[in-house]
Design a protein that fits this description.
Length: about 250
C-alpha cells in the first residue's frame, strides 16, 4: 500500500501547472500561490538519491522562489530523511495515513438541515475555499487563482464537495485528487467552527469517498490532523496504514 500511496502523490504533483522533474524528485509548482502546502516535492519510487541530488533539488526550489519542502511515504525512500537533515532540512511533522476501501466505507446520514453537493459555480467554489482557509487559519477569502485551482481539480477528474445549510450558505468543504492507478487522496476537509461536532465532517468525508468509489477508485487515503479528526475518519471506515514525512528547509 505504501507504494500505491506514494505513486498517487507523484501523480498529483505532476498535475500542478508547472511540475518540474529534478533528478529523482518531482516538484509540484503552482506559480499562482506561494503556499508551502501546494508547492513541494516528493521522491520517485525506487530512486537512488545522492547528496548532489539534494543540492540540485534545493537549487531548483530557489530558482522558482519557493521553500524547499518534501512530503513522502517514508518507507519508499528509507535513507532520504537523513540526507535531507544533513543538508539542513528540519522535520515539520510525521503523520500516519489512513486508507479506506469500498468494503470498509460507512456512509452516515447527512445531519438534518444540511445538504452535501458539488460546487457548480465559481461563487460556490469561492464559498468552499473561504471555509477551508478559515478552518486552516488563513483569511476567509478566495482569490481567482484559488477558484481556478478548485475548478482544475474537477476538470481533471477529482471530486470536490461542499455542505450548505438551509439558507444555502457553505459551512464545510473538501476534495479528492484526480485518481491515479485506482488511488486518490481525500484532503482539505473543513467545517466552520460554529457547525462542528454535528456529524458534518464525517458525512462530507464519506460522501467524497463514496463518489470516488462510484467512479472506480479502489483506494482512498487521507491524513488526520488531530485526535478529533482521526476519530471522524475511523468512524467512516478509514484505517491507519502507513507513515508520511513532512520536511522543509526554511
Amino acid at each position: 500500500m505504501d507504494a500505491r500511496v506514494q505513486r498517487s502523490v507523484i501523480a498529483n504533483l505532476s498535475l500542478r501547472p508547472n511540475a518540474i522533474e529534478v533528478g529523482p524528485f518531482v516538484i509540484g509548482w503552482d506559480p499562482t500561490t506561494d503556499s508551502r502546502f501546494v508547492n513541494y516535492a516528493t521522491p520517485q519510487l525506487d530512486a537512488v538519491v545522492t547528496p548532489a541530488d539534494v543540492t540540485t533539488l534545493v537549487a531548483a526550489f530557489r530558482d522558482i522562489d519557493r521553500v524547499p519542502r518534501l512530503e513522502y511515504v517514508t518507507s519508499c525512500a528509507p535513507g532520504l530523511e537523513q540526507q535531507l537533515i544533513d543538508a539542513g532540512f528540519t522535520v515539520e511533522a510525521r503523520h500516519d495515513y489512513l486508507v479506506c476501501s469500498p468494503d470498509s466505507l460507512t456512509v452516515p446520514a447527512t445531519p438534518d438541515g444540511f445538504e452535501v453537493a458539488e460546487p457548480a459555480t465559481d461563487a460556490q467554489r469561492a464559498g468552499l475555499v473561504a471555509v477551508q482557509n478559515e478552518a486552516f487559519g488563513e483569511e476567509p477569502v478566495a482569490t481567482p487563482a484559488d477558484i481556478a485551482r478548485v475548478r482544475r481539480v474537477q476538470d481533471n477528474g477529482g471530486v470536490v464537495m461542499l455542505v450548505r445549510n438551509g439558507d444555502g450558505v457553505c459551512v464545510a468543504g473538501g476534495q479528492a485528487t484526480p485518481p491515479s492507478a485506482g488511488v486518490s487522496e481525500v484532503a482539505g476537509i473543513a467545517v466552520r467552527k460554529e457547525c462542528r461536532r454535528r456529524g458534518i465532517a464525517g458525512a462530507l468525508t464519506a460522501a467524497i469517498t463514496a463518489r470516488l468509489f462510484a467512479t472506480g477508485v479502489e483506494v482512498a487515503w487521507l491524513e488526520a490532523s488531530g485526535t478529533d479528526s482521526w476519530r471522524v475518519y475511523e468512524r467512516v471506515g478509514y484505517v491507519p496504514t502507513g507513515k508520511r514525512l513532512y520536511i522543509a528547509l526554511d
